[in-house]
């Protein structure tokens, strides 16, 4: 399809076109993710799937800690350097980020080695828990490098390749491995297959990143030092970890107070929240660097325009998906097995809250891309504490529904507070698109 030149140069058209391109790949990725989930729920026990979801949650939280916010700050540096025409320094920053990640990995590995095995197993009432944590920790460096590489490819304008990694390639080793071990009747190897997949992706994606740097003729230098990289990254690390804690504290409490089967049912419901997040992230990814660039150049009118356009697309897309998921929730869940319908109420609560919060727009991205990482870090820290307290009291009583209520309340809290902070600091109203 050929578009007229006047449309191609239109910023609004460019945002829509880029968003749709990313959205298509993300839809394919979510389709693959649900294909994997359907295969797992129909061929592996709910108990084993619950262990897999526990490992996945642990990887998200502690992987974000090891990343030290580099996956977010690389976008910040790319936008800032692009604004001052100095983008060739990205390779130098990338190498420094790998060093930071490796140091964080060594610290985490040491801590896990020192943990008391019996205490961990008794706390979660499961003799396999320490073993799961230990194995996951061993591959976290490769996982973290993979996530960073996806974002670096984006900063080098290889958006399609970045999205292919993020949405398709990331799941393929696990999916193919799960099919193989199921065929060989070695289902107990599921967790190992999942973790080994990240070793492969980490190695391959790192090779490709350095290969792309050669093509772009980017040369390492000391324009931005390790200290500055760390200072800009670590607040985003805390914010990033807080995000994943908000998505994972519930699983940890469900592990303690219920069983692996309940975790499996709840985790399927959570995956439908990812569908709403699909629309939100597709837009945020396309405007993140642009926000940093326009803010650096003090082009406030253009900045407001791109924020308003992004929020409008975000809300409309989320609203449509919310209506479809909530209307057909029981039918959708039954595809994973009749027992998974037990998570229907939790599913509706989380999907509706995520959809409504899309109304507030790119609050998180704006704060991170405009040098307000510290404020956002504080907001999310309070949100995590609220989430922890709510889960502690509600999950023992209401199970999955209590987890869903805790998730939703925390989500509304940090979104609304972020809108207020942005308006007070920059006089930009995130609801200005109305």
TrEMBL record:
Q: Does the keyword Oxidoreductase apply?
A: no
Q: How does it sit in the membrane?
A: Multi-pass membrane protein
Listed transmembrane segments: 20-40, 60-81, 93-115, 130-152, 164-183, 189-210, 234-254, 266-292, 313-337, 349-367, 379-398, 404-423
GO function terms (MF aspect): antiporter activity; xenobiotic transmembrane transporter activity
Keywords in UniProt for this one? Cell membrane, Membrane, Transmembrane, Transmembrane helix
A GO cellular component annotated for this chain's UniProt record is: plasma membrane
One Pfam family named in its UniProt record: MatE
Subcellular location per UniProt equals: Cell membrane
Coiled coil region boundaries? none
Which domain of life does this protein belong to? Bacteria
Entry protein name: O-antigen/teichoic acid export membrane protein
């Amino acid at each position: 399809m050929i578009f007229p030149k006047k449309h191609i140069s239109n910023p609004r058209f460019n945002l829509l076109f880029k968003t749709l391109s990313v959205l298509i790949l993300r839809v394919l990725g979510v389709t693959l993710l649900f294909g994997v989930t359907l295969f797992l729920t129909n061929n592996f026990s709910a108990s084993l799937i619950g262990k897999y979801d526990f490992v996945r949650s642990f990887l998200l939280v502690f992987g974000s800690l090891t990343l030290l916010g580099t996956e977010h700050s690389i976008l910040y540096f790319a936008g800032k350097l692009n604004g001052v025409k100095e983008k060739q320094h990205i390779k130098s920053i990338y190498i420094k980020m790998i060093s930071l990640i490796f140091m964080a990995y060594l610290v985490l590995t040491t801590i896990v080695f020192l943990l008391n095995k019996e205490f961990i197993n008794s706390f979660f009432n499961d003799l396999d828990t320490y073993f799961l944590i230990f194995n996951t920790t061993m591959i976290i460096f490769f996982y973290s490098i993979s996530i960073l590489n996806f974002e670096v490819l984006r900063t080098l304008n290889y958006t399609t390749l970045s999205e292919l990694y993020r949405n398709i390639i990331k799941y393929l080793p696990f999916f193919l491995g799960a099919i193989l071990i199921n065929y060989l009747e070695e289902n107990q190897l599921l967790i190992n297959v999942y973790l080994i997949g990240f070793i492969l992706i980490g190695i391959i994606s790192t090779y490709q990143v350095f290969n792309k740097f050669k093509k772009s003729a980017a040369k390492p230098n000391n324009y931005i030092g390790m200290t500055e990289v760390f200072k800009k990254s670590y607040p985003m690390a805390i914010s990033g970890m807080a995000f994943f804690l908000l998505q994972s504290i519930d699983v940890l409490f469900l592990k303690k107070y219920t069983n692996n089967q309940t975790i499996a049912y709840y985790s399927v419901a959570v995956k439908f929240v990812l569908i709403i997040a699909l629309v939100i992230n597709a837009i945020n990814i396309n405007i993140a660097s642009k926000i940093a660039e326009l803010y650096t150049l003090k082009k406030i009118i253009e900045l407001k325009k791109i924020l308003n356009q992004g929020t409008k697309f975000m809300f409309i897309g989320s609203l449509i998906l919310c209506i479809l998921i909530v209307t057909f929730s029981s039918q959708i869940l039954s595809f994973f097995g009749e027992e998974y319908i037990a998570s229907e109420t939790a599913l509706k609560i989380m999907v509706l809250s995520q959809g409504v919060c899309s109304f507030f727009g790119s609050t998180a991205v704006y704060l991170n891309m405009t040098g307000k990482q510290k404020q956002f870090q504080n907001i999310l820290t309070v949100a995590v504490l609220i989430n922890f307290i709510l889960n502690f009291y509600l999950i023992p009583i209401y199970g999955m529904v209590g987890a869903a209520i805790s998730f939703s309340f925390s989500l509304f809290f940090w979104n609304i507070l972020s809108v207020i902070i942005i308006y007070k600091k920059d006089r930009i109203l995130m609801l200005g698109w109305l």
